[in-house]
Design brief:
With 487 residues, the protein is an alpha/beta fold. Helix content is 24%, strand content 29%. The strands form five sheets. A ten-stranded mixed β-sheet has the order 21-20-24-18-17-16-1-19-23-22, with helices on one face. It starts with a strand and ends with a strand. The structure holds alpha-L-arabinofuranose.
Amino acid sequence: MKKFSMLINASDVTGHINPEIYGHFSEHLGRCIYNGIYVGEDSPIPNVNGIRTDIVEAFKNIKLPVLRWPGGCFADEYHWKDGIGNKQSRKKMVNTNWGGVTEDNSFGTHEFMELCEQVGCQPYIAGNVGSGTVQELSEWVEYMTFDGVSPMADLRKENGREKPWKLKYLGIGNENWGCGGSMRPEYYADEYKRYQTFCKNYSGNQLFRIACGPSSADYNWTEVMMKNINKYTANGIALHFYAIPDWNTKGSATKFDNADYYKLISTANFMDELLTRHTEIMNRYDPNNDIGLIVDEWGCWFDVEEGTNPGFLYQQNTMRDAIVAALTLNIFNRHSKRVVMANLAQAVNVLQALILTEGEKMIKTPTYHVFDLYKEHQGGDAIYCYCGSEKMEGGAPMISSSASVKDGVMTITLANCSIDEEAEVECDICNFKGSEASARILTNEVHAHNDFDAPNVVHTEACDAKLVGNTLKVKLPACSVVSVTVK
Ligand code: AHR
């Protein structure tokens, strides 16, 4: 067993962990919305206004703070007026990005806002810049948030919603360097400023306007955007980064060897460098942290499961995904001075999903359980946390960690990213009065996953964490994620 020492200093606050760092993404893609979250009012699957009850309960359990919708690439071909009013007469369209299937628009603004109300999370709307107009986006904001007499507020009332909704997070386009219009950053920056000018703060609603940010390590995009925006025109800029070692051969979600595993973990760990370097650029233009960095889309992206529609991006989820999630969330916590939101792609049945469904069956993936273990970080202060563990093949740390304090309770999350070596961590906790520790663990063989016949193979359970004075000792089996509570 490998032994490592660790240090936590509760008086060294490194950032505030916005709950939205634990956010999620739901696109009109494959079975995320239709036949996933939304089954329709007439479905035999228990639902409230068409929204699956078991999924809502699962989302509530992890305190899901924010949900991004309707895309993704879909956002820049979505015309919101097609998704309101009588369902039977809603316009149908082709979902050109995702399998060319017919989108019947039965899940639109009202249904999405209802979903967020049922879950108790913030809605995050991604507006259409690529194929939309300034007027269209401006009217969408008016429709959702204006409390008075106006063409859009009247239309909303006609459609059954008297009072406006509160909408904080508004994305102005999605991946406008790619599926959102193939724009140069200079061109997009101008478009961004034009669009955002007409997205108004109505009736006490305060928008948090999010500009399309870079793809992965496109530092020039960040530089150009930061030159062009300021705290009066933008509140956030959104980076997209997927853990994909090779776009041509993504590989199977469940069948992989050790080399594939370590390559993926080191790709996921690149998030740390990305955040550091994008933050450095942002610091030069915005030293007071007025503009937040948002990791709008992140997660593992593998080949689709055999026999499923290639355009639906349906993949299984193993302990490997859990390790990626744990490592990435620890990175976000450590960067929480600049990172204010992050959304895993995607919530249900798509990419690194929290939840998979098949008919009335629903399973929670290993990734779901990581969000469950980490949920107490939400709203806490991130504090200095350093583990002197060795680096693995590819450069990622063997032990990934982060810590926070909220309401006098400390949460420490640890992942042993090695697939075959057990570890013991001895942690000195400074400047914190705690007298007891408890812990929960998620661990299994790296390929282990839940499926519809065996939904509980990967699950969390209580484990030992010993606190003697200021020293905490925790054993971390190979391939494990642990959350320790000290109070
Ligand atoms: O999450 C799947 C797709 O990945 C999104 O639609 C797009 O924004 C990104 O390229």
